[in-house]
Amino acid sequence: MIVNRECIKKIDNLINKYIKLEIKREFLHDQCESEKNIGELVYLLENALILLNSHSNKNKERALTIATIVAKLPVKNKQLKLISSIILGRLRNFKSQELVDNNNEENIISPFDMLKNNLYKRNNTIKLVNKEYLLNNFQLSFYELVKKRKVVSVSAPTSVGKSFIIKRIIIDMLLNGLNCCVYVVPTRALITEVINEIRKEIRKEINIDDLNIGFNISSSSDVTNLKKEFKTILILTQERFYQLCNNNEIKVNVLIVDEAQNVIDGKRGVLLEYSIKYAKRLWKDLKLIFISPLINNPEKFTQRFAKEDESGYLNEMKSSVRQNIIKLYKDTCGYKITINDNLVAEKVRINRSASSISGNIASVVLGFNNGQNSIIYCNTTKLAVDVCEKIFNSGNYDDSNIDVLNEFADFIEYSISKKYLLSKYIRKGIVYHYGKLPPFIRGGIEELAAQGYFKIIACTSTLLQGINLPAQNIYVYNPVKGRGKKKKDLSNLEFWNLAGRAGRMGYDFCGNIILIQNKEWNDINKYDDKSNEVQFISDQYKEIDKLKKIILHSECNDIENTEDVEDIEDGEDIDDIDDNDGINDYIVSSTIIDRINHQKLINHQVENESYNNLEDMVDKIIQGFEPPKELLIRLVGMRYSNINKLWLYLKSNDSTIEKFLLPHPFNVDKKTFLKVYTEVIDIINKYLMNENLYNQYDKDKLKFMSYSWITENKLKFILLYKVLKNSSNKEYNNKEISKEVEKQVRYLNGNIRYKLVKGFYAYGEILKEYLKITGREKLAHKIINIPMYLEIGACKNSTVELVSLGMNREFAIEVVEKFKITENNSIEQLKKLDLSKLNNNYLKGKLEEFIETIK
């Protein structure tokens, strides 16, 4: 049977009709029973059985749409549901098929269809980590490509199961001969999520005792304490991965780059690209896997990093869930509503506030909602908080009385303050999420959101960094990020990455992306085109004339490098800044590295006098660089002139060089440590950071807050120091407490966990190299890992070990203090704890989960 053009037109019209009915039923509470027609549904299903065999992706998408329409219909016709299940099975969308079957009481299927269904499942079943898995077509193709090729790049929507398959591929490769895998994530916030998921998979999927295999699983670039006989999985940011390459103390067999599209983003894009280049120079047989969402040119990565005969790519554009684009066009007394550009309602009365954007957003969410979990995209943290407040005050949401939410709220109040606003929102299943939340709160929100506990999540652009916050509905009021001078529209890639969170595979048949027209965003048709291409950020700069200009400015020490954290609205931490501040330093640095490694300075072939002059300019810099040239490679993004300045300063103080070594914070008294610590910070500020590390007002704050952070003070004493030491007896209200927490987290993440870490890392590497070439290697070994202490907020070996294994800092500090965990065999001590001594059920539950995964 052939489906002709007229038939396709009729099918599309019926699809539009039933999706409109679905939106009316769910969002407008109009049951529209009289408009349903069993004959039409049968016609759609019959044609879907034909369309799913088409070579056209569009026709397969029609088949999926028909199957999900019928699956969602509130009808008791079991035969219709059964045919929907058959269609999903033949599309190898087994998770959605399982969802249909679970909701259908009886499965009366013909022997022929049962045989075909079983055959499809058998063909898509593979053995991984000594266990059989049923995969969809994308997962199967991904697995087969990884088996055959050395360098692989895949692009696919959020909901097709990339994470599921890649974690099992990692474990499978390690069980079958490889020894070390590095998984690069774009933000620190993702580390804990990935590390815990992998540990759970290992515990769940394989019997380590039977296989006699142990696993090192860590988030640290320091591998000196790892057990060499164990298999190793490292989950690192691009910064930590570059440090791992510098250390070169372990051979990496597999490198997985998640959210690989971040090569387009400013400094971190350059750093990510050069981390990969560095790794390929170190480990010649390195297997590379790039994972991106919804880009049209995943082959860009294989072209940059591999030969054609050793690489392959996969581009999957089909989602495993149907996604509805619902547009709300503003009208005099509400909104005109369309679904996939078809009119649903001419006018829906939803009040708009004349003075409040947050009021407008809250009104739409409250007045146009299907009761399912929803994410509201907000471009600023203030807007996210205000929207939550409006929804909270609406009275539409009662306390959820869900134990895990109440326990989480209790722990927040215990760890921060009873007046912290977020805790009372959480009890109602409402939450906001942004980069300036304390890390343990962000992690808790993400975990509970992934489990579906929150009805409302108001979220900023942190959602674009691969954070796992799935929901059935995504509301978009204004698709920009940042504020003031930093404010800019989301790119097409960023928008569809955001929209991809709508609909969860195995939980939802469809997701809804709700676009709200307003005076800030009048063109809500802007993102209709889903085509997205990725380009390496370095390609925008690595042209002869541009490079010459940048290098000339660098020689005048004239590069703009503000890195003003107060101007950055969001981003996980400041190491995830998505602007181009300071990118010129990274471009100059990476150009010098290319020249040292005898590689082309620009990304296309050219031989002329102008290019030769460019090479001469770079050669002059390298020849005039007094320290070992290796430092230029190790300190990508640090100005060569600053490295040189610090080197000369150390040289001029050679006779008293030991004074530049910091003692361990717990090996000396506070006064002694702070004296040396302050002197080193001043040196870093003057010689490496262009007097940009602190200003005259916050030097003491930087010193004392960072000291409290690394010496494992509780977070509330760090963030609310001003409030707790308040001498005027002022009574702070909920909003003031929450604002103070946000302000101090911003400072902690930006000035301490980013800028100070960067400065101390460069300082330590330069000092270490100076000591080595002057014959004082024993002194070099005494250099403590202050950058790691500053990044994670701990310096006791037992606490550092627990955090590196994936435990949250606040949990690790609590358990080390409460149970007196010592530095020797802290993991074994942890396994023997009596957790009944803990009063907080949330902390107790998280520790039980953690201990279970490390047994």
Describe this protein's structure:
- With 855 residues, the chain is α/β, with parallel strands linked by helices.
- It folds into five domains: 5-123; 126-315, Rossmann fold; 322-516, P-loop containing nucleotide triphosphate hydrolases (Rossmann fold, 3-Layer(aba) Sandwich); 541-565 and 577-622, no CATH class; 797-854.
- Helix content is 49%, strand content 11%.
- It has 35 helices and 19 strands.
- The strands form four sheets. The chain has an eight-stranded mixed sheet with strand order 12-11-10-19-16-13-15-14, with helices on both faces.
- Helix 11 (238-247) runs parallel beside helix 12 and helix 12 packs parallel to helix 21 (583-596).
- The longest helix has 40 residues, at 734-773.
- It starts with a helix and ends with a helix.
- Residues 558-580 have low confidence and may be disordered.
* CATH fold name of the largest domain: Rossmann fold
Provide a count of the helices: 35
The count of strands amounts to: 19
Distance between the termini: 58 Å
Name the average pLDDT. Answer: 88
Main sheet: strands, sense, barrel: 8 strands, mixed
Q: Show unreliable segments.
A: 558-580
What is the CATH homologous superfamily assignment of the largest domain? P-loop containing nucleotide triphosphate hydrolases
Based on CA atoms alone, the radius of gyration comes out at 28 Å
CATH architect. name of the largest domain: 3-Layer(aba) Sandwich
| Outline type | globular
Keywords: ATP-binding, Coiled coil, Helicase, Hydrolase, Nucleotide-binding
Protein name: DEAD/DEAH box helicase
InterPro entries: DEAD/DEAH_box_helicase_dom, Hel308_SKI2-like, Helicase_ATP-bd, Helicase_C-like, P-loop_NTPase
GO molecular function, one term: helicase activity
